[in-house]
UniProtKB/TrEMBL annotation:
Organism: Gilvimarinus japonicus
Name of the featured protein: ATP-dependent RNA helicase DeaD
Secreted in keyword set: no
Gene encoding the protein: deaD
Catalysed reactions, semicolon-separated: ATP + H2O = ADP + phosphate + H(+)
E.C. no: 3.6.4.13
A family per Pfam: DeaD_dimer
Biased composition (Basic residues): 563-573
Domain Helicase ATP-binding: 37-208
Domain DEAD-box RNA helicase Q: 6-34
InterPro entries according to UniProt: CsdA_RRM, DbpA/CsdA_RNA-bd_dom, DEAD/DEAH_box_helicase_dom, DEAD/DEAH_RhlB, DEAD_box_RNA_helicases, DeaD_dimer, DEAD_helicase_DeaD, Helicase_ATP-bd
Lineage: Bacteria, Pseudomonadati, Pseudomonadota, Gammaproteobacteria, Cellvibrionales
Compartments it resides in: Cytoplasm
Class of enzymatic activity (EC top level): hydrolase
Membership in a protein family: Belongs to the DEAD box helicase family. DeaD/CsdA subfamily.
Alphabetized SMART domains for the sequence: DEXDc (SM00487), HELICc (SM00490)
């Protein structure tokens, strides 16, 4: 059987895991899943070379869960992740895939989280622990995390852990795990340090390479909306009100969602229909034919059901659910902008899914711009335009309207009203069920856009840095990592929160420059905390925290931070 025709039921997963996969709505495995799951079920170590967003989490979680013994509470699977965000995301995926396994527990552990809560939960027991290297090391040193009976270990995004300076910590952790464990290492690239880890700690690993073919058409405009402050369906209907579309293919993750969303859009007056893997071929073809013949305007589909669809009039693709696989995104938006025509792709991104957005941008080498949700005034203008257009079409038609001329003329004479007054009353009656004037609440700002604006240009015409003063109780520091190193504000926040134990809400404004950055931290920060931050690596650079002295310093070294009550300056070694 070729991988093209492979389904999850062909992969020898346990009945409970397969049931959860079906419940989630997955239909066919991605390339990395099709290759990795059989190898892991056979007990092999693997090295998976694939970009973020290719379905790697399911590739290791599904086979490992199929072998978990839920009658025993000791830690059987350990996943190491570079950031707290990824640790949480992976833990949530394990919980979702284990929904049909009573007695299963997964625990994410990372810096910045209450240690006492983690200690209590570890004492109760968890079959799967997902953690950042620093916090896993803390628990191993305390003796609160017992890995003596570990059967599976996963190194997720190993190259990212290398860039953040965790590779020695990873090696230390591996030394404290049983030699009999099964190990899976996943990385987008294979630098020599990661190759060394694989050679040293994995046993005859099977190497799985997934080619990256993620390229999008230049004639497709791509935008995203950050799901915040407004219900997704309400946001979708706002967008549909103002987007001049011919036909739309809208993608969701599950078969159930195709039907639910189609019904909700039809209830709002749109000509919509679902297409999914449960439909027979005849019904599927009939639905696509309706889209071609303009008897249907919106098609809600899953990835599998949309295969082979080529309809010229599709002007828009809307990713109502962001795909986990960046190549799936490319295939989705390829349904528009065909044969040289222009198209538009709109992507909905939930706050927890921003990593997937970054992965898509990285894989496609194309930035996706943030879009503003249409305001009430914008929707009002669109409805008024449609209203005027309808009136114009009637007036320009050859329809006999003499009856209405007599009817309304008699009314004006009998009631002694002006034609303009009558027109206002008629317009009000026509739009009463769908008012032309729309008033909507303001939308909350987009946190991703704010972060990107933070990392944008921070210099004036004369090279002077522009940023607001630190908030009360905060102090501005300099760190030796910047844009030329590939750093992003999220990298800095994640590294400090994970490795120094400082909560992300305690980290203030971050400004990226070419060779360094500034960030605001608590003014009364302890010297030990500052020393921890100074030694952290981000994108392979030691932060070397020092007090910021402003633009006059012109990028040259500067005063190291002197903690209160201390005269000695600190720096990383």
């Amino acid at each position: 059987m070729t991988t093209e025709n492979l389904t999850f039921s062909d992969l020898a997963l346990s009945p409970a895991v397969l049931s959860a996969v079906t419940k989630v709505g997955y239909e066919v495995p991605s390339p990395i899943q099709a290759a990795a799951i059989p190898a892991l079920l056979e007990g092999k170590d693997i090295v998976g070379l694939a970009q973020t967003g290719t379905g790697k989490t399911a590739a290791f979680a599904l086979p490992m869960l199929s072998q978990v013994d839920v009658t025993k509470s000791h830690t059987q699977i350990l996943v190491l992740a570079p950031t707290r965000e990824l640790a949480i995301q992976v833990a949530e995926a394990f919980q979702r895939y284990a929904s049909e396994m009573p007695g299963f527990h997964v625990l994410p552990i990372y810096g910045g989280q209450d240690m006492r809560g983690q200690l209590r939960q570890l004492k109760r027991g968890a079959q799967v622990v997902v953690g950042t290297p620093g916090r896993v090391m803390d628990h191993l040193r305390r003796g609160s995390l017992d890995l003596s009976k570990l059967t599976n270990l996963v190194l997720d995004e190993a190259d990212e852990m290398l860039r953040m300076g965790f590779i020695d910590d990873v090696s230390w952790i591996l030394e404290h795990t049983p030699a009999t464990r099964q190990t899976a290492l996943f990385s987008a690239t294979m630098p020599k340090e990661i190759r060394r880890v694989a050679t040293t700690y994995l046993r005859n690993p099977e190497e799985i390479r997934i080619a990256n073919e993620s390229k999008t058409g230049a004639n497709i405009e791509q935008v995203y909306w950050m799901v915040s402050g407004t219900n997704k369906l309400d946001a979708l209907t706002r967008i549909l009100e103002v987007e001049p579309f011919d036909a739309i293919i809208m993608f969701v993750r599950t078969k159930t969602a195709t039907v639910e969303l189609a019904e909700k859009l039809e209830a709002r007056g749109y000509s919509a229909a679902a297409i999914n893997g449960d439909m027979n071929q005849q019904l599927r073809e009939r639905t696509i034919e309706r889209l071609k013949n303009k008897k249907l305007d919106i098609l809600i589909a899953t990835d599998v059901a949309a295969r082979g669809i080529d309809v010229e009039r599709v002007s828009h693709v809307i990713n109502y659910d962001i795909p986990y696989d960046s190549e799936a995104y490319v295939h989705r938006i390829g349904r528009t902008g065909r044969a040289g025509r222009s198209g538009k792709a709109i992507l909905f991104v939930a706050p927890r899914e921003k990593r997937l957005l970054y992965a898509i941008e990285k894989a496609t080498s194309q930035r996706i711009e943030a879009m503003k949700l249409p305001s009430g005034d914008t929707i009002t203008a669109a409805r008024v335009d449609q209203f005027f257009q309808s009136i114009t079409e009637v007036l320009e038609s050859e329809q006999d309207m003499s009856f209405f001329d007599d009817l309304l003329g008699n009314y004006c004479r009998e009631k002694e009203v002006e034609p303009e007054q009558l027109a206002m009353a008629m317009a009000y009656l026509l739009q009463k069920d769908r008012p032309l004037q729309v008033k909507l609440a303001d939308i909350k700002p987009d946190p991703i856009r704010e972060k990107r604006e933070r990392s944008g240009s921070d210099r004036g015409e004369r090279g002077e840095r522009r940023s607001r003063a630190p908030e009360q109780g905060m102090k501005r520091f300099r760190i030796e990592v910047g844009r030329t190193h590939g750093a992003r504000p999220g990298d800095i926040v994640g590294a400090i929160a994970n490795e120094a134990g400082l909560q992300s809400r305690q980290i203030g404004q971050i400004k990226l420059f070419d060779s360094f950055s500034t960030l605001d931290l608590p003014e009364d920060m302890a010297a030990t905390m500052a020393q921890k931050i100074a030694s952290i690596h981000v994108r392979g650079q030691v932060l070397s925290l020092s007090e910021d002295r402003g633009p006059a310093r012109k990028g040259g070294g500067g005063g190291s931070f002197k903690p209160k009550g201390k005269k000695k300056k600190f720096a990383s070694k």
